[in-house]
Design goal:
259 residues, alpha/beta, 6-stranded mixed sheet, binds zinc ion, binds fe (iii) ion
Length: 259
């Protein structure tokens, strides 16, 4: 096994989605959440890459809409949750299972909340990397379309337990609005001020703010810090009971929905 098993490149899609392209040095690749086929097919064709797999984190169209057109050209396995109703999935995954893609082992983490079928893909080599769709965002988290606050909070806790150096590949470029919301709760937080300035600089140069890192998320993402006093105070100030950490999470998520 080589050290450098795969590298990662963003393929921007729609207005703020990223389709993640995983590729080996010998020109094999996989894609995560191809919401549209165009950017994927253009990349495969122009660089003569050999597609080996499609990975899906959840059923939303902006993550799956390109699958049929990609399969029409490249009939590759489609990996997704065993709980998903996406008809193109032909490899059904459950929490804790391992799959081998591009000579690399990926662990499947069930992370319901944004949707009930949501999963993440985690690999340890060459560096820990997490492909987490619309569950954990840089500085934020996904909306609760299907799950309860309790489910989403447990899912985020599960992700927060991954190693500090884990690179976090989310499916959307939502970082600036997430950090502005986070600062509305804690205007004086210097880590947040610094992170927002760095991300504004990246965006002003049309650079992605991703991947993030798990230690940075644990330090600055309000949804991973619901047990900390500043977030508990913010939830209480806005009128929530905030008796439990899940109450705090639910209130902060509600505030973000209306931000
Ligand atoms: Zn989604
Ligand atoms: Fe999405």
């Amino acid at each position: 096994m080589t050290e450098d098993m795969y590298s990662v490149k963003p393929l921007p899609a729609f207005t703020d989605n990223y389709i993640w392209l995983l590729e080996t040095s010998d020109g094999r690749c996989a894609v995560v959440d191809p919401g549209e086929a165009g950017p994927v097919l253009a990349e495969l064709d122009s660089r003569n890459l050999k597609l080996e797999a499609i990975l899906l984190t959840h059923h939303h169209r902006d993550h799956t809409g390109g699958v049929a057109d990609i399969l029409a050209r490249f009939p590759v396995p489609v990996y997704g949750s065993a709980d998903s109703k996406v008809s193109s999935i032909n490899h059904f995954l459950r929490d804790g299972e391992h799959i081998r893609i591009l000579d690399t082992e990926f662990r499947i983490l069930a992370i319901p909340g944004h949707t009930l079928d949501h999963i993440a893909f985690y690999s340890e080599a060459p560096v820990p990397r997490l492909f987490c769709g619309d569950t954990l965002f840089a500085g934020g988290c996904g909306r609760l379309f299907e799950g309860t606050p309790e489910q989403m909070y447990r899912s985020l806790e599960k992700l927060a337990g991954l190693p500090d150096a884990t690179e976090v590949y989310c499916a959307h470029e939502y970082t600036l609005s997430n950090l502005r919301f986070a600062l509305s709760l804690e205007p004086e937080n210097p880590l947040l001020q610094e992170r927002l300035a760095q991300c504004e600089d990246l965006r002003s140069r049309q650079q992605p703010t991703l991947p993030s890192r798990m230690d940075l998320e644990r330090a600055t993402n309000p949804f991973l810090r619901c047990h900390e006093a500043p977030l508990q105070d913010a939830a209480k100030r806005s009128g929530a009971s905030a008796n439990s950490v899940v109450d705090v999470f639910a209130q902060i998520r509600r505030l973000k929905d209306n931000f």
